[in-house]
Automatic annotation (TrEMBL):
InterPro entries: FAD-bd_oxidored_4_C, FAD-bd_PCMH, FAD-bd_PCMH-like_sf, FAD-bd_PCMH_sub1, FAD-bd_PCMH_sub2, FAD-linked_Oxase-like_C, FAD-oxidored/transferase_4, Oxid_FAD_bind_N. GO terms for molecular function: FAD binding; oxidoreductase activity. It comes from the Bacteria. The lineage of its organism: Bacteria, Bacillati, Actinomycetota, Actinomycetes, Mycobacteriales. This is FAD-linked oxidase. Belongs to the FAD-binding oxidoreductase/transferase type 4 family. Signal peptide: none annotated. Residues 39-218 form the FAD-binding PCMH-type domain. Its cofactor is FAD. Keywords: FAD, Flavoprotein, Oxidoreductase. GO terms for biological process: respiratory electron transport chain. Gene3D superfamilies: 3.30.465.10, 3.30.70.2190, 3.30.70.2740, Uridine Diphospho-n-acetylenolpyruvylglucosamine Reductase, domain 2 (3.30.43.10), Vanillyl-alcohol Oxidase, Chain A, domain 4 (1.10.45.10).
Length: 466
């Protein structure tokens, strides 16, 4: 270890305590490698501050020495956005894990960045409320992480994305200064929306230490429908009919026959129907009336467009398990790290998009196995490609994104850009857009020390500037 690093580590230890500066290679692996194994980084150390003041002091020390920092919450991201580059430190928010307050009247939670989504939801439920974001990684994903990535999740169709829930942030800027935009109001229109800017900034603009977020009212009861259908149109029509009958769609997911078969063979989930269907849609609905009766009426009127259907009162965990086990089972089933392309297309184009994608992959990359699933009512399809030879991964990504662009879609619906997609950012943003993003980056992080290898393709080019 160089003298410079030794001096840095001593300084960090003096700030956070010896126990919270991790340098041993084995322990560091859970911070430097993502859980899919696709993104493997390196770091000088993992630092775990316990307060905002400690975060500020750590960041100031790194700023002075021009040491890059990668902030990390639960390390559940899927685009390598929380994985450090050699020479950086990982700043883990795990210890910023206290819930400060819940205001049950204003329906607001104030919590540390390291609080998990499950902890926030659990705390909200004690007041008869709900946290507005939910995702399969709820037990590990942190509030700081979901804000930094502007996560979507399964309730996005109902409550919007994380940015829509965010009222305020406390964040440490690249020189250690603390920004506190902390106003527990849903109406506060004074100038630029800095919390909104930090949402989705992937650790490149500031390090989020606390969040102030809305809570929602949970529906009194829900019904969960799992229907086997032959076409995307049938799934979209079913969702549309539910809305037209006054039902509230709480979640609307799509799975394919191959995805469901894979989950059933790599977990204890059971196939839902006697006969497989080409597609499965899982829709959770609520209403102020008799939800079950209305759902049954809609299903019987839609019988000619469905192969089969089951209805269960929420939470219907066994039905949800089939959908939520996709990510883990896919990882287990693939012989190589899964290529994960989280895309969105306009609803009227979804069917032709899927057909074009499946036929291009079958014709041009016959050795790979694509599994598609996602939050279809948001236009969001998770294109997971298994068994991709490493050398083919860029070519496959190029091809998928070409088809996405031809269908007027987005190359990142909810997972962000991270390392995985930064080479393709020009497919999602114009040159003027990118210029503005770079200007914002250099205004907030002129030394380019915050997650320099993430999001913007040439972010590190500014590292020579002061
Ligand atoms: C989900 O919707 C997550 O379950 C993960 O966004 C998706 O594994 C994926 O591609
Ligand atoms: Zn998702």
């Amino acid at each position: 270890m160089g003298t410079q690093n030794a001096v840095l580590l001593n300084c960090l230890r003096a700030i956070v305590g010896d126990a919270h500066v991790i340098t041993d290679a084995i322990t560091m692996q859970s911070y430097t490698i993502d859980w899919t194994g696709r993104w493997q980084g390196e770091a000088v150390a993992v630092v775990r501050p316990g307060t905002t003041d400690e975060v500020s002091a750590v960041v100031a020390a790194c700023h002075e020495r021009r040491i890059p920092i990668t902030a990390q919450g639960g390390n559940t991201g899927l685009v390598g956005g929380a994985i450090p580059s050699a020479g950086s430190i990982v700043l883990s928010t795990q210890r910023l894990n206290s819930i400060d307050t819940i205001d049950p009247v204003g329906r607001i939670i104030a919590a540390g960045a390291g609080v998990t989504v499950a902890m926030a939801d659990d705390a909200a439920s004690k007041h008869g409320l709900q946290f507005g974001i939910d995702l399969a990684s709820r037990d590990s994903a942190t509030l700081g992480g979901i804000v930094a990535t502007n996560a979507g999740g399964v309730r996005m169709v109902r409550h919007g994305n994380t940015r829509a829930q965010l009222l305020g942030v406390e964040a440490v800027l690249s020189d250690g200064a603390v920004l506190s935009r902390w106003i527990p109001l849903v109406k506060d229109n004074v100038g630029y929306d800095l919390p909104g800017l930090l949402a989705g900034s992937e650790g490149t603009l500031a390090i989020i230490t606390k969040v102030l977020m809305k809570l929602t009212t949970p529906p009194p009861e829900t019904q969960v429908v799992l229907a086997g259908v032959s076409t995307i149109e049938a799934a979209l029509n079913l969702c549309d009919r539910m809305r037209r009958h006054g039902l509230t769609v709480e979640a609307a997911e799509i799975m394919t026959t191959d995805g469901v078969a894979l989950v059933c063979s790599h977990s204890d989930a059971r196939h839902p129907f006697g006969q497989p269907s080409p597609l499965y849609t899982l829709i959770e609905i609520s209403s102020s009336g008799d939800t079950e009766a209305t759902v049954l009426e809609i299903l019987s009127a839609s019988a000619d467009t469905m192969d089969d259907a089951i209805v269960e009162p929420g939470p219907a965990r066994k039905l949800w398990q089939i959908r939520e086990s996709h990510t883990e089972c896919i990882s287990r089933a693939s012989s190589t790290p899964v290529v994960k392309l989280d895309v969105a297309v306009p609803l009227p184009e979804m069917s032709t998009f899927i057909t074009a994608l499946e036929s291009a992959l079958a014709a041009e990359f016959s050795e790979v196995t694509p599994i598609l699933f996602g939050h279809f009512a948001d236009g969001n399809i998770h294109v997971n490609i298994l068994n991709v030879p490493t050398a083919a991964s860029n070519a496959i990504t190029d091809r998928v994104f070409e088809i996405v662009a031809a269908h007027h879609g987005s190359i990142s619906a909810e997972h962000g850009i991270g390392r995985a997609k930064k080479s393709w950012i020009t497919l999602g943003r114009s040159p003027v857009d990118i210029r503005i993003m770079k200007q914002i980056k250099s205004a907030l992080d002129p030394r380019c020390l915050l997650n320099p290898d993430v999001l913007l393709p040439t972010a590190s080019a500014e590292s020579t500037q002061t």
